[in-house]
Amino acid sequence: MNGPPEEITSLVGREVYSNNGVFVGEVEDVRLDLDAQSVTGLALAELNAELFAGRVDRNTGVIVPYRWVRAVGDVVLINDVIERLDTGEDPEDAVEAEQGPA
Fold this sequence. Notes:
Layout: E1 15-18, E2 23-33, E3 38-45, H1 49-52, E4 60-65, E5 69-72, E6 76-78, H2 81-87, E7 96-99
Parallel strand pairs: 1-6
Antiparallel strand pairs: 1-2, 2-3, 3-4, 4-7, 5-6
């Protein structure tokens, strides 16, 4: 991550894909740790309906831990969310549901 820093808001609107090329959602917001001055999660909306069917409601987004992020460019690439959802990993690593606008 050399080079000039980018605005955090530049993440908003980027599409998110798993490392296997599966569309996951679109970044709607970021979760910050103000004390550590770091990004801790990405709030996703416009979710892949197939991927999250039966897991989250229609008007609900999810927050993926930022530690899952593998690369940020024109799109955001994350570790394979499908495997993590299916294995029921430790809640600390789990995708969190976030209520969206009604």
